Amino acid sequence: MSVWRAAAELARAGGGGALATVARTTGSTPVPAGTKMLIGPGGRLEGSVGGGCVEADVIDAGLGAALRGPVIRTHHLNADLAGDLGLSCGGTVHIVVEPLVSDTAYVRALEEADGARSGTLTTALDWAAGPVKRFTAGPVGPHEATAALSPDQGTLIERITQPPRVIVFGAGHVGRAVALAAHAAGFRVLAVDDRPEFADTGRFPADVTVMAAAAFDALASMALEPADAIVIATRGHRHDAMILERVAASAAGYVGLLGSRRKQAVITHALERAGVPIAALQRVRVPVGLPIGAVTPEEIAVSVVAELIAWRRGSAATGPARAGY
Predict the structure, then answer these.
(1) What are phi and psi of 223, to 5 degrees?
(2) Alpha helices in 99-172 (DSSP H)
(3) Could you read off the pLDDT of 32-59 as tens digits, one per residue?
(4) What pLDDT is recorded for position 78?
(5) Domain locations in the chain?
(6) pTM above 0.90, yes or no
(7) Are 68 and 57 contacting, i.e. CB atoms less than 8 angstroms apart?
(8) The CATH number of 165-313 is which of 1.10.3720.10, 3.40.50.12780, 3.30.110.30, 3.40.50.720?
(9) Which element (helix H / strand E) includes 184?
């Protein structure tokens, strides 16, 4: 469950709690702007804003937030303090702590932020006349700050985009492990399998979408975008090749195929003969994942999701697709 949805549910229930957001950082800090922590009546529920005494202070502020409205907590992480806490040193972090309230407009803004593709969430930090939180849908620039304070420090401004979607074709042992690891890493995940016993929602967390359908039917029902990553891990060469034929030249930003070099050669030859452009095949990552010597499904999932994270963050660690095309 996203922190937005969890916060909305806690606010709607009216049982207290607070939401902490790293609003500004300078220098070296343990977490970036936009990082969140959900605080319940008994303490931290989800997320982290850095640990140690920083987090303890924020939790304390969150437990008392209902009495005083939003506050900004500022912590200077000098070298001695950071060393004692095991944190990065030399930075300053500004954290907004706001109470969760059952106000209808406030809850609706949280829900809109949770379900939106992109937009801006603004929160006034002076609640003398009541809470003010508003979501505005719209495009967000790729280089805009995730969270920031207005120049007068009277408003928290958050720019929200949905995380990339990972579509895993094949929900067997490896496919399921990849889906679980991708979900844990914060991706939106869709697992597709034509076998009902594998495409069973009980095998996955509630936030993972599971589709019991043939790959072709699943692909026909979705529009692939640059923010989509596809991992092909079905039960056989024929299924893999048929999916790859349809997604290699798609708009998806990442396409990876589970398998060996020999499997790569066989499928590549067949797809070239079928007319798939060579440039489309050259971008396919096969074997999918970073080369860490993975063997078990869980190890393979770690290698795949590590590469997905590098792709998401624009890291050079992904490098070119490792294929002999």
Answers:
(1) -105, 120
(2) 104-115
(3) 899 999 999 888 888 888 777 788 899 9
(4) 63
(5) 3-161, 165-313
(6) no
(7) no
(8) 3.40.50.720
(9) helix 173-184
